[in-house]
Amino acid sequence: MAKGIAEVPGITCGVARAGIKKTAKPQERPDLLVVVTEEPAEFAAVYTTNDVKAAPVKVSMELSGKVSGIVANSGNANACTGERGIKDALEMASLASQLTGKGRFLVASTGVIGEPLPMDRVRTGIAQAVANLGKAQGEEPARAIMTTDIFPKLAFKESSGFVVGGIAKGAGMIDPAMATMLSFVATDAKVPKELLQRALKEAVEVTFNAITVDGDMSTNDCVFLLSTGKSGVEITEENYSLFKVALTEVLEKLAYQIVKDGEGATKVIRVVVEGAESPQQARSVARKVALSPLVKTAVFGNDPNWGRVLAAAGSAGAGIVEEQTELYFGSYLLFKGGRAEFSEEAVSNYMKESQEVVIRLNLNLGSFSFTYLTCDLTYDYVRINAEYRT
Amino acid sequence: MAKGIAEVPGITCGVARAGIKKTAKPQERPDLLVVVTEEPAEFAAVYTTNDVKAAPVKVSMELSGKVSGIVANSGNANACTGERGIKDALEMASLASQLTGKGRFLVASTGVIGEPLPMDRVRTGIAQAVANLGKAQGEEPARAIMTTDIFPKLAFKESSGFVVGGIAKGAGMIDPAMATMLSFVATDAKVPKELLQRALKEAVEVTFNAITVDGDMSTNDCVFLLSTGKSGVEITEENYSLFKVALTEVLEKLAYQIVKDGEGATKVIRVVVEGAESPQQARSVARKVALSPLVKTAVFGNDPNWGRVLAAAGSAGAGIVEEQTELYFGSYLLFKGGRAEFSEEAVSNYMKESQEVVIRLNLNLGSFSFTYLTCDLTYDYVRINAEYRT
Questions:
Q1: CB B113 within 8 A of CB A310
Q2: What are the residue positions of the site described as Involved in the stabilization of negative charge on the oxyanion by the formation of the oxyanion hole (chains A, B) (predicted)?
């Protein structure tokens, strides 16, 4: 069985089929998740930077100190729902508290924007999820937060005496000028609040903040990281990097799964920019290429359209020099010294046969690099998003 | 007959079917355009800000003083073509000069990136276009610069004693952090160079720089404005605004046609942001909404998905306040005071029946406004761009 957040010592999960999404058949999929910590746990969080924040984000942002867990639902984002939304998010948190007999809860929601939560169903769902605590394992908690996701996303890492495990959801509205989508991660290492927040911020920067599906930023994005301390391993400045490496590996795997499950995606695109004169240059060029609909549709069509890649790279205005730039698709060199020369057939075949297409730009201006992940843009992206509500 | 650049006194146009695009049947459509001024003319220009600039852009940017016209081709962008590309662009310009017996020419290309120009065909084409000078009228010059465009784009305006007429091309790779796509405009007013450049810059800012199809920035974009002076009307600081208004109206019409012809588009989307506390805020919010693939697919699906609009508006990070913001689709109020209330059916019908969907946000924070034009995102956008070369 694949491991996720439920396999972290000190964590118990319960889910319920509450039927929150109007059109859902309740039996289809769980849509309510309660994550409980044995003892009150330190936590760190990264939230969307959108001006329009969903009610659960506003409510969770108010929390400090320790928490006893997370309550989350899919099928309804509780976003743009005014004062009633805030009241509903607060009720979700306090209901989870009361029914578990524990302390305060973080709260998160994902799904359709702008419809009030069907609180009758949410209340019943939370009660059922609490009653089922301990039964949800492996993929089950990840399933409860899926919306247009096709597969559940989870990752787990054993390190030196401690583990990190997490789940995530996200397929559309994925963009990384912020914490992206929902992800709940826990560790049984004992991490002081300050180090926990620092590790989360640093790890998010190179994982969730380095992926894009469609450039849209959600109102509901948050990443929660809980430290149960159950392993007894204490994280200090000395072994901080050990913890950060393990956390980054887990978030990397979750981020990869999100891109792989990008709405309508048939391929992952890994955009690697090397030889940049600054980290900012590397990042901004990689981001522009990863965001380009023309690059993304070309990959869908197995078209080694290197010109679109160069045009997108140049549009960052980051000072790339055409004559210095080398462009590779996989191991094939397409463009160097200001001109292109390669076998269209060979590169197109490479694209056809690859689940992950690697687009690598060497700017030959310095020694910095950055990697961005995205996916191709397909008919299904349009279908999914044109039909989402109607 | 619709009027364009050929109807401006002092301007003559010739086109040819040169068969520049590899897969083109030469008889299909003209692909070579020569625009000639009776006397050397003042000109103004705005170019792409992409780091990767096509050879014709680099060559045209070197010109100062007066010019005798424009030579342009479609079917091949002459971009990312190294030194040979520069040589070819220079040859196009000098060939047009020689064959017309005139002064220097601006040069522009549009089409596939990264393939060398088939110069044999280009040379023959320029000779034919020069031989045909005067025959290309109305839509004909605009047809010669089309690529994935479905219809030719032209506009004409009579003002006080002078006229402004122009053509444009552009359907994909349209993004406005710069001069967008190709547009050639002429006036028979006599405009000093400094005023000509100022008017062009100011008019581009609210027209071509306020549209987006896919957020991609081209290597080839340029707008050329020629002043033949043929009307004898002199433009000075006193009547400058007269000229600017006429020019802006022509560019506005061309910009609208580009969006209407957006790759795969079925509808124009007009994003109006009002009540902003600064012009920058209005612009950045409007731009984010216009760029959002989720908003664009929702419009394609006739889905009044106001939540996506608010999420996109908020993602600008420009300081909008959810509770203050009002959102309208056409004349329908969808969201106000932090909550949504409207007839889904009525608004969806409005969307279905409209060729142009107006999305209007009143931020209620100040008195500035900005309007952005875009189009919906459809299956055909993906089809056109996945199949473009292969």
A1: yes
A2: 110-111
